[in-house]
Write a structure and sequence with these properties.
Elements (H helix, E strand, L loop, with lengths): L10 H8 L8 H11 L4 E7 L1 H4 L4 H17 L4 E5 L20 H13 L2 H7 L29 E10 L6 E4 L6 E3 L8 E5 L13 E3 L3 H4 L7 E5 L2 H6 L9 E10 L13 E5 L5 H7 L9 H4 L2 E3 L12 H21 L1
C-alpha cells in the first residue's frame, strides 16, 4: 500500500522561503519585480494523477511523466497542476513495482520537478529515491535555464552551499560553472535560487552577484521552466490557484466537447489561462467524483469545453497524447489572444 501522501515542495514555495527576509535591502526591488510579473500572462495545464495508475511498470510510468515534461517545455507552459481525480487515491499503488511506495500524484510530481531542474543541480536537490531510478534514461528538456558548463547567460539557476564565503554577509552558490559564485545575501544551504550573473564573466573576481525572483527571466522574455503544484481534486485545481486573482480563463478538453477549428477559436485576452485534461474516463469522471461539483456537468465548470481532435482514428486518445495534440491546437489561438 502507498504511504500517506506528503506534498512535495514547489518551486514557488521554495522561492518564497528564500526571499522571506523583509529586512534585506533588495526586498523593495523584488516587490517591484513581482508587480511587473503580475502583468505577464501565464499558461497552465492540469493533468490527472490517475494516468500513472494505468501503467504496469516503473519504466513506462517514468517515460509517461517524461512525455508530459517535454510537452510542457516545448509549448512554454508555466505551471503543471497534478490533481487526484479519484476518491481514496492515496490507497492506490503507483505502478506494478513493489519498491515504489508513493501515490501516483507524488510520483508524477517528483519526475516533473526532477526533469525541470537543471542537471547540475539535481544531485544537491534530489536525494536518491526509488521513483527516480529510471529518470536518467529520459531525454533532457533542454530548456533555456538548463545551461551547459561553457555557456554564459544573464541568469543561471543555482543552489546555495554549506561552505561559507570569507565575507560573513555573503553566500556561495553553485550555478554549474567551474567555480561557485558569491551572492551578497545570507541564505540557508540547499536552496534553489535564480542568480543574475551580470556582465562580468570573471569568476575569480569574487564580484557579488544578485539573487532575483525566478520570474525575473520571464520579464526579459525568456521561458524559464514550469512550476509544479498538487491539487487533491479538480475543484482544488481552480480554488487553490497560486496566481493573484486566480485563473481568468479555463478550458476543458474532451471528446464530448465543442468542435471548433483552431483558426476560428477566439480566446479572450487573459492573465492566467488554464487548460485541463482528463484521465481514462475523461473530465466527466473527475467532476462526478468531486463533491464540490455535485449536480454539475462538465460544460458548466469551464469557460469553454473543446474537442481538439474530432476526427481521431483510434477509439481512445491517451492523456499524454491529448496534451501534445491540444497544446499544438491552442498555440495560434493563444498567440492571437496575447497580441490582442
Amino acid at each position: 500500500m502507498a504511504k500517506k501522501k506528503q506534498r512535495l515542495t514547489t518551486d514557488a514555495e521554495a522561492e518564497a522561503e528564500v526571499n522571506s527576509d523583509d529586512s534585506h535591502p533588495k526586498k523593495k526591488k523584488l516587490k517591484k519585480n513581482k508587480k511587473k510579473t503580475n502583468d505577464i500572462p501565464t499558461v497552465s495545464i492540469a493533468v490527472p494523477a490517475s494516468i500513472i495508475d494505468n501503467v504496469q511498470t516503473l519504466e513506462i510510468a517514468t517515460r509517461l511523466a517524461g512525455q508530459i515534461a517535454r510537452a510542457a517545455t516545448i509549448f512554454r507552459i508555466n505551471e503543471v497542476v497534478v490533481f487526484d481525480n479519484r476518491r481514496n487515491a492515496d490507497k492506490d499503488n503507483t505502478v506494478a513495482d513493489n519498491s515504489v511506495e508513493e501515490s501516483s500524484s507524488d510520483f508524477l510530481m517528483r519526475i516533473l520537478q526532477y526533469l525541470e531542474t537543471p542537471q547540475y543541480l539535481r544531485r544537491a536537490l534530489f536525494p536518491k529515491h526509488n521513483s527516480l531510478r529510471l529518470a536518467g534514461m529520459l531525454p533532457p528538456l533542454d530548456a533555456p535555464h538548463h545551461l551547459r558548463k561553457h555557456e554564459w547567460g544573464p541568469y543561471r539557476e543555482g543552489v546555495t552551499i554549506k561552505e561559507r564565503h570569507s565575507n560573513s554577509g555573503a553566500t556561495l552558490v553553485d550555478v554549474g560553472l567551474f567555480k561557485h559564485v558569491v551572492v551578497d545575501q545570507i541564505l540557508e544551504p540547499g536552496k534553489r535560487v535564480t542568480v543574475a550573473m551580470g556582465a562580468n564573466r570573471n569568476l575569480d573576481s569574487d564580484l557579488p552577484r544578485e539573487v532575483v525572483s525566478s520570474s525575473t527571466p520571464r520579464e526579459d522574455g525568456a521561458y524559464w521552466g514550469y512550476q509544479v503544484r498538487y491539487a487533491h481534486n479538480i475543484s482544488s485545481v481552480f480554488n487553490d490557484c497560486t496566481y493573484k486573482g486566480g485563473y481568468d480563463y479555463v478550458i476543458g478538453t474532451s471528446e464530448h466537447g465543442q468542435i471548433i477549428k483552431s483558426s476560428d477559436l477566439e480566446i479572450p485576452s487573459f492573465r492566467h489561462l488554464l487548460i485541463t485534461f482528463g484521465g481514462l474516463a475523461g473530465l466527466e469522471e473527475s467532476i462526478e467524483e468531486d463533491d464540490n461539483y455535485k449536480g454539475k456537468n462538465a460544460q458548466e465548470v469551464f469557460n469553454i469545453y473543446l474537442n481538439t481532435c474530432p476526427h481521431q482514428g483510434s477509439r481512445t486518445i491517451r492523456t499524454e497524447e491529448a496534451i501534445l495534440i491540444s497544446l499544438q491546437y491552442f498555440q495560434e489561438p493563444i498567440n492571437r489572444a496575447l497580441l490582442a
